[in-house]
Amino acid sequence: MAPPKALHKVLEEIHLLKCSLLPGELISFSEDAAVWDALLETYSADPDAELPESIRQRPLHFEVRTEENDVWFDVELPLEYGSEGDESIPSVAVKGPNLGRAEQQRWQAVVAEALDEVRGSEYLVYELISAHLLPRLHAASLESSNAEPTHSEDVSSSSKAHPETAHPSPRYHALFTSHHLKSPQKRRSLSQWSHELSLTGFAKVGYPGVIYCEGAREDVEDFVSRVKSMQWLALRLRFIEPSPLEGLGENSMRQWKEFEKVGEVVEEMRRLGRESYIVEMGIGSAGSNVPSTR
User: Fold this and answer.
1) Which of 7, 38, 44, 242 is the most buried (most CB within 10 A)?
2) Residue 262 Cα distances to 183, 184, 236, angstroms
């Protein structure tokens, strides 16, 4: 049986979640729904109300989903969750009628990374779901809708079959900065996406985090959208714009790199003839007056 304080803590977090839901986001109890709905109603009316001590005799199960995605999260809170001094974490299973093994493993890796990010948080469940899991469901739905074939894609395929009528996409580049970049999962994702989208660029790990990429416009925009969908501390998109010096990235930087020092970032951008893009933003030191190309 969970102690009263633990029950109040659980209700507090579930109440916060319910109040923070956006349109199309759903949270529902898997077991004893009527009982938990009544408890939440009582708590919302008076957070200090006395609650039956015997009400919670087994782990709390609830589902988190969005209307636009057929993947959802099944969350189980241990009985001791919320007790004073307790450090237990929820169990989160990924469910879906069409979920293949590979996709299941990918989603469970997302959950594991999110749990690592929120471990030790005062409102662990609330932060886990509102700041990590729900945004990832929205991002997955967006990626899925972008991947659906359309008439314009058919026309594009036809153009590829007739190179003389095709119009190459303009090259773009983009630069992010963040408070830090340490997560192995984020670093793997950046490298994976760069290869998938045929982008070139680099990530500077540690403090601060710096991410730079270059490639076809639609691929850079896709990459930027994916980066934004992840949870960051003080992430800023410094720019996304046409790349100066057409073809430079394609011919001179056909890989994704990682750096640990700001000086290495400055040197790489200097090698590409783009040092001013980061120096103007206070990242590193110019070492010489480089005229702005922007």
Assistant:
1) 7
2) 18, 19, 17
pTM of the entire predicted model = 0.51
Burial of 154 (0-12, 13-18, 19+ CB in 10 A): exposed
| Coil, helix or strand at residue 30 | coil
Distance CA 78, CA 58 (A): 8
CB 172 within 8 A of CB 243: yes
